[in-house]
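Weekly structure sync, notes
Attendees: PL (lead), two postdocs, one rotation student
Agenda item 3: pending single-chain targets
PL asked that the sequence for the first pending target be pasted directly into the notes so everyone works from the same version. It is reproduced below exactly as submitted, 144 residues in total.
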Amino acid sequence: MIWTGFGGEEPVIQTLLENFEPRVADAAPFAKASRVLLIRAPSGVGLDIALGGLRFEEDAANRASEFEFPGDVRLRTCTAEDLVVMKAFAARAKDWLDVEGIIIRQSGKLDWSYVESQLQPLVELKGAPDILAELERRRIEFER
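Predicted structure, written out during the meeting:
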């Protein structure tokens, strides 16, 4: 996610499209409508770049910390709780599988009150309150 706020997307989209191959036709209009820019890294790996604009996204960016991956690659990554919120909010089948994996890996360590406090207003905005029930069902099933 790159924090753009609302209205600051255009220069970020243009800069990324000048440096990376788009994965869809009309990538810029798609990114403006969906708030996700789909590009391809030089290695061929697909990258989904979210264009952050919500207060939650700004807070998640501020809560992120550096993580060192193999090969001395350092990236800022969001907290496990923020990732659960993002994945549950997206609510696609593959996102729910990711949520299950996070619950298993972080079992007993997740701050569920934080997750709920952040997810509640987002699902209200989306008009999808069933997301909270689905997350709770998976929490019960997969947390040890």
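Discussion points:
- The radius of gyration is 16 Å.
- The CA atoms of residues 39 and 137 lie 34 Å apart.
Action: rotation student to compare against the earlier draft before next sync.
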